[in-house]
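Encode chain A's predicted structure.
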Amino acid sequence: MIKITKDEIRILLYMVVAVAILACLPLLDQGYILSLGLTIVMYVALCTAWVLFSGPTHYISLATAAFFGLGTYVVGIGIDVLPFPILLIIAALIGGVVSGLVGIATLRLSGVYFVIFTLGMAELIRQIVTWIQTNFTTGIGLYVLTDFSEAHIYWMLLALTVLIFITGWLINRSRLGFAMRIIGNDETVAAHVGIDSAKAKVLLFLISGAYIAVIGAILAPRFAYIEPPSAFNPMISFLVVIMSLMGGTRTLWAPLIGVVPFTLLFDMVSARFPNHSSILLGIAFLLIVYLIPDGLIGRIEGITKRFSKKKERTHE
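Encoded structure for chain A:
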């Protein structure tokens, strides 16, 4: 049985209130603010799903665009045939299977080799989808016509984000979470204490990939028309990594600190400099890596510790 402390109950209550307030956003605005809020919730969900795996393992995965694109294409292909909830389940299954296979093939790699492989794998999947559509269909794009409004998509994403947080909390409290923390600190130690590192990493990568695919499936109706360059856009992978690193990957909720300010800032910069967004994104990545390697949460914790030490010295 999982024991919940008083502090966790307090945090849970705060989260319930916050989610209830956020759920009211579509009732207050149906224009730009809702669109911006939808983008923020999308990246919160993506970053949280990404941190499920990359947080404890410290593996930088650039495969987000691959799983996201697969999810959008599941809906694009089946929207006229199957109910939307069934398509979400299929997207989760396909995302989980593909991420599991990729994990089995690649998670023995580490460092820059894993990063390069995941980026190449995402591009490979995009090229395969493009080739199939070019040679076996009438076009390279798909229409996704539904009755869903941005409000409906926003609520679905918000609910999924809550589910991802709950999943992450349960994993952190489980043997899998304990094993992943040991693996993240030192895989050699994990092997000596009898932890099957490969199995644990593949399982967590599978869960993360399944959630990312569902996020892509939920967002497919927002695009209305999807094609490989937009569905498998590598910018999605880079933005998720940058936002997560900016907030920090030590805790499940740390990416929140990175997603909100970065999304607002990137939205303003993209509007003013639409042709230079990629360059500015690269500069932002370099600044984050060099100036705040532990993320904003790490910097805040460091300042808090220094302040506490000064306070103790003053009392002495």
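The first helix runs from residue 6 to 22.
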